[in-house]
């Protein structure tokens, strides 16, 4: 389907499933540095294995993570109808012996292990090789990923008290390291990220490689997470205004290139995990370091394409939450933006749903956007409480694709990329920093740049000849933060990044109250009338397919169980997994 830019991986430890297995067997690839690290081409091959480790779906674990916050509901709505596989994640009851939790832990330490091997190998090289610019670039990338993985682990495990792995352990004694304090971990991963920030170019070629912009983004994010907006905004300002160098980032203005698989690594991509369906096609769908992922299977509709009878290939397991769907569809559009008029004229009829909604989710009343070769209501019933589907990880808009079997040998072998960080997210984080440091006008300006590219009404009290505004005043931290927390962040970045929504709700201290509020909101569904593809077009009805707010047919609420189960006691961190505590004598 698409070309993959990532170099074919030389897998050093691809079969290793436990962090301790490499201590129990001889690894023929783990050669001593004096016999292997002789050229920068050899070290480049090993560096590529670090990127290969990032293909592991458990790094981001998008199959489970959205259930831990407020953006997704597991399958059928209504109390007692939750898919049992996702209950521990939805109800915040994941235990230390959970096998998927163990994989989340191991996948990140596996990348750290490989990065350490590259770092040690590069450090063993001659002074002549160290003087080569490629040496610094390779070291910068290795340290970036080592820092990134420690940042991820710090964000999700044990209140940030994790194990710092700064070398490849060669003995059981070296493996048995104690936990470090949260501050020690932050100091460690920031040192790695600062090295990458200082030594990587602003733009790396190929674009699939990490660069200084990626390092600056994670550094800024780490300070924002720590509650230090003054420090965070320095890095975000650098990225937005190209202070240190030309990063080449720009908000993508052609929104047809957002979330449809047709423009990977677009102009606002900062960190993106690259998949493809034409490499190692023999891999099993559960090969966590294969070049495909399973997200299309979880997010595409179940059943057949109603227009051509083909099986769509989805399981509609992961569904956008009702409130999220409703907010997407109801965002106020700018009447002065010609893109919001179906005939291309400002005097013409308005779109049925906004551009941001149509690119992010599929709903029954979107009769404009392509969806598996047709339009939404023509393809699937949207019946009952399956009133919306996530688009960001399906191949719905690729020309000629009418089901998920056509992008690979299985719907569970999707080539869609995972976008981890992009410029719009930096804009929103910088807007938060500005709001918290008193620059309210600057915060609104950044938010409006994102809203303008989607053709949405801008924030502000007055309208202009060029744009509509919402008529509200945003001149204090509270008003801007409410807009960011409950509108801009979730609608722009839903189902993206590393635990993004969960981390945000936790650091804002609003998770419990947010879930409680949502557990009281009532939604229902009603019929929707649409036009068929017949010639001439006929009128047809999709029963119980259109989401409405309030009591009505098949009414329901969400997050009842999640709200009841939420506990602020551990602030939503995972415990250290059982395998680590059993195999590491320094952890009790």
UniProtKB/TrEMBL annotation:
<comment type="similarity">
    <text>Belongs to the SusD family.</text>
</comment>
<dbReference type="InterPro" id="IPR012944">
    <property type="entry name" value="SusD_RagB_dom"/>
</dbReference>
<dbReference type="Pfam" id="PF14322">
    <property type="entry name" value="SusD-like_3"/>
</dbReference>
<dbReference type="InterPro" id="IPR011990">
    <property type="entry name" value="TPR-like_helical_dom_sf"/>
</dbReference>
<keyword id="KW-0998">Cell outer membrane</keyword>
<keyword id="KW-0472">Membrane</keyword>
<dbReference type="GO" id="GO:0009279">
    <property type="term" value="C:cell outer membrane"/>
</dbReference>
<keyword id="KW-0732">Signal</keyword>
<dbReference type="Pfam" id="PF07980">
    <property type="entry name" value="SusD_RagB"/>
</dbReference>
<dbReference type="InterPro" id="IPR033985">
    <property type="entry name" value="SusD-like_N"/>
</dbReference>
<protein>
    <recommendedName>
        <fullName>RagB/SusD family nutrient uptake outer membrane protein</fullName>
    </recommendedName>
</protein>
<feature type="domain" description="RagB/SusD">
    <location>
        <begin position="314"/>
        <end position="587"/>
    </location>
</feature>
<feature type="domain" description="SusD-like N-terminal">
    <location>
        <begin position="21"/>
        <end position="224"/>
    </location>
</feature>
């Amino acid at each position: 389907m698409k070309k993959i830019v990532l170099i074919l991986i030389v897998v050093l430890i691809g079969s290793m499933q436990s962090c301790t297995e490499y201590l129990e067997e001889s690894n023929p690839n783990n050669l001593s540095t004096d016999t292997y690290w002789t050229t920068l081409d050899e070290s480049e091959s090993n560096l590529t294995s670090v990127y290969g480790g990032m293909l592991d779906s458990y790094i981001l674990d998008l199959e489970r993570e959205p259930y831990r916050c407020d953006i997704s509901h597991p399958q059928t709505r209504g109390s007692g109808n939750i898919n049992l596989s996702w209950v521990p994640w939805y109800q915040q009851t994941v235990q230390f012996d959970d096998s998927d939790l163990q994989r989340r832990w191991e996948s990140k330490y596996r990348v750290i292990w490989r990065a350490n091997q590259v770092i040690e190998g590069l450090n063993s090289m001659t002074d002549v090789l160290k003087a080569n610019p490629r040496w610094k670039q390779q070291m910068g990338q290795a340290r970036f990923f080592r820092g990134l993985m420690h940042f991820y682990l710090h964000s999700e495990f044990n209140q940030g008290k994790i194990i710092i792995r700064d070398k490849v352990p060669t003995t059981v004694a070296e493996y048995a390291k104690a936990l470090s304090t949260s501050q020690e971990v932050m100091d460690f991963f920031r040192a790695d990220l600062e090295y990458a920030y200082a030594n990587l170019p602003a733009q790396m070629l190929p674009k699939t490689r990490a660069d200084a912009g990626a390092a600056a983004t994670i550094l800024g994010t780490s300070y924002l997470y720590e509650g230090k907006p003054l420090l965070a905004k320095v890095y975000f300002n650098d990225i937005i205004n190209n202070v240190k160098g030309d990063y080449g980032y720009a908000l993508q203005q052609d929104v047809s290139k957002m979330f449809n698989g047709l423009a990977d690594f677009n102009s606002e991509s900062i960190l993106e995990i690259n998949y493809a369906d034409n490499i190692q096609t023999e891999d099993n769908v559960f090969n966590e370091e294969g070049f495909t992922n399973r997200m299309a299977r979880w997010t595409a509709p179940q059943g057949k394409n109603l227009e051509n009878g083909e099986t769509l290939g989805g399981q509609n397991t992961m569904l956008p939450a009702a409130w999220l769907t409703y907010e997407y569809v109801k965002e106020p559009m700018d009447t002065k933006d010609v893109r919001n008029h179906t005939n291309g004229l400002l005097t013409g009829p308005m779109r049925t749903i906004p551009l941001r909604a149509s690119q992010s989710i599929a709903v029954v009343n979107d009769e404009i956007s392509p969806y598996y070769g047709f339009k939404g209501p023509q393809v699937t019933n949207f019946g009952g409480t399956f009133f919306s589907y996530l688009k960001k990880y399906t191949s719905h808009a690729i020309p000629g694709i009418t089901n998920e079997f056509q992008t690979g040998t299985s719907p569970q072998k999707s080539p869609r990329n995972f976008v981890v960080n992009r410029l719009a997210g930096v804009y929103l984080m910088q807007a938060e920093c500005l709001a918290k440091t008193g620059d309210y006008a600057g915060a609104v300006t950044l938010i409006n740049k994102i809203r303008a590219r989607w053709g949405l009404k801008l924030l502000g009290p007055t309208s202009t000849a060029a744009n509509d505004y919402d008529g509200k005043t945003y001149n204090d931290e509270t008003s801007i933060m409410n807009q960011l927390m409950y509108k801009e962040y979730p609608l722009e970045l839903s189902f993206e990044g590393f635990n993004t929504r969960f981390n945000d709700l936790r650091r804002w201290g609003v998770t419990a109250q947010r879930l409680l509020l949502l557990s009281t909101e009532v939604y229902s569904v009603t019929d929707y009338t649409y036009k068929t593809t017949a010639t001439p077009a006929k009128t047809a009805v999709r029963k119980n397919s259109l989401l409405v707010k309030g009591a009505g047919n098949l009414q329901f609420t969400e997050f009842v169980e999640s709200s009841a189960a939420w506990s602020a006691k551990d602030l939503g961190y995972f415990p250290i997994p059982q395998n680590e505590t059993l195999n590491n004598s320094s952890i009790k």
